[in-house]
């Protein structure tokens, strides 16, 4: 849709004289950047906090970090299918954390909970943290989190999933933005 228009004008009252040498009538156009391009040195970063809700026993659920601190490229889609979609290829550092609490029933010895990073919905990148309960407790808040690096092509997405394996009762994400947060920063490199 964009175009360039050139016009020539001569105001001296004499005849128009346009040079015919190779450097007399030259036009150079350069496209520096556009909305579909991201410079290799440009910062890609997002930080979200706050998550809450029950964790169904023996299943992975996507953590919905629902309060935005910043998102340089609007790469995050919030909701039950929360995801960060890479706007450009490169290595990304992901740090995520939640606090897990009793929702109903006490923790039992052998119960476990954890936080994992997934790429494109189903590829497990790795566990960020896994905790095995060694002492039964009536009511306990337990922190779960970690950091890892992952290579993403433009358009790939990542999600953080939480799980809880309970003998009885149900766990929940605590819901405090100071304890539940995620940071994602592109650290560079293209394969």
Protein architecture, described:
Strands 1, 2, 4, 7, 10, 12 and 13 form a 7-stranded antiparallel sheet that branches. Strands 3, 5, 6, 8, 9 and 11 form a 6-stranded antiparallel sheet that branches. The mean pLDDT is 81. The chain is mainly β. The relative contact order is 0.27. The chain contains no helices and 13 strands. Helix content is 0%, strand content 46%. The chain is elongated.
List its salient traits.
seven-stranded antiparallel β-sheet; elongated; six-stranded antiparallel β-sheet
The biggest sheet amounts to: 7 strands, antiparallel
| Backbone CA Rg | 27 Å
Task: Give the overall silhouette.
Answer: elongated
Order of helices and strands: EEEEEEEEEEEEE
Strand content: over 45%
The helical percent reads under 10%
Helix vs. strand class: mainly beta
């Amino acid at each position: 849709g964009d175009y360039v228009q050139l016009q020539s004008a001569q105001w001296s009252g004499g005849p128009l004289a346009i040079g015919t040498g190779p450097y007399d009538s030259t036009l150079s156009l350069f496209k520096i950047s556009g909305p579909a391009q991201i410079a290799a040195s440009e910062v890609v970063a997002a930080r979200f906090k706050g998550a809450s809700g029950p964790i169904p026993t023996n299943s992975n659920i996507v953590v919905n970090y629902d309060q935005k601190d910043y998102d340089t490229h609007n790469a995050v889609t919030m909701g039950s299918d929360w995801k960060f979609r890479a706007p450009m290829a490169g290595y990304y550092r992901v740090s995520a954390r939640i606090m897990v609490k009793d929702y109903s029933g006490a923790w039992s010895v052998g119960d476990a909970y954890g936080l994992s990073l997934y790429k494109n919905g189903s590829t497990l990148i790795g566990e960020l943290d896994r905790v095995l309960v060694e002492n039964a407790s009536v009511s306990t808040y337990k922190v779960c989190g970690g950091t890892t690096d992952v290579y993403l092509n433009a358009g790939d997405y990542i999600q953080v999933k939480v799980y809880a394996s309970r003998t009885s009762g149900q766990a929940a994400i605590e819901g405090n933005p100071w304890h539940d947060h995620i940071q994602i920063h592109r650290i560079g490199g293209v394969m």
